[in-house]
Design a protein that fits this description.
- It holds the Pfam family ParB_N.
- One of its GO terms (cellular component) is cytoplasm.
- Keywords: Antioxidant, ATP-binding, Disulfide bond, Nucleotide-binding, Oxidoreductase.
- Its EC number is 1.8.98.2.
- Strand 5 and strand 6 form a beta hairpin.
- This protein has a domain of 86 residues: Alpha-Beta Complex (Conserved hypothetical protein from pyrococcus furiosus pfu- 392566-001, ParB domain).
- It starts with a strand and ends with a helix.
- The protein is an alpha/beta fold.
- Helix 1 crosses helix 2.
- The strands form 2 sheets. The chain has a 5-stranded mixed sheet with strand order 3-7-5-6-4.
Length: 125
């Protein structure tokens, strides 16, 4: 795992964070540790399932603003992802996810927490 510090002009806050590789040596996404809280991982967009079809369209202006921000300073708030049996499910962060897609970025920073099939069923209700 590598540590990065993003240095910006004095009027910006500095934040250090850790990221891990987006894939393992065999090409599969990394797994979430069995115990402990959420971890922040860089995951390929195509490995994140989005099982709930949008009930409303994303706000195009918000997506555009996020695209500009991500282009300039990167994603500041990871999307929340649930990992169940090695599969990743995203239920929020729709605007950030779409901004990454439209920018052609292959990965997105995710706060991943491990869940059970019952947890997944709860999210699908």
């Amino acid at each position: 795992m590598a540590n990065f510090v993003l240095q910006l002009p004095n009027n910006f806050r500095f934040r250090a964070f850790s990221v891990s590789a987006s894939t393992s040596s065999n090409g599969s996404p990394p797994s979430v540790p069995q115990s402990g809280g959420p971890v922040v991982l860089e995951l390929p967009l195509d490995k994140i399932r989005r099982p709930l079809m949008r009930t409303r369209a994303n706000d195009p202006q918000k997506v555009k603003e996020l695209m500009e921000s991500i282009r300039e300073i990167g994603l500041q708030v990871p999307i929340d992802v649930l990992e169940v049996d090695g599969e990743y499910y995203g239920f929020s962060g729709c605007h950030r996810y779409e901004a990454h897609q439209r920018l052609g970025l292959p990965t997105i920073r995710c706060k991943v927490r491990r869940g059970t099939k019952e947890t997944l069923r709860h999210h699908l209700r």
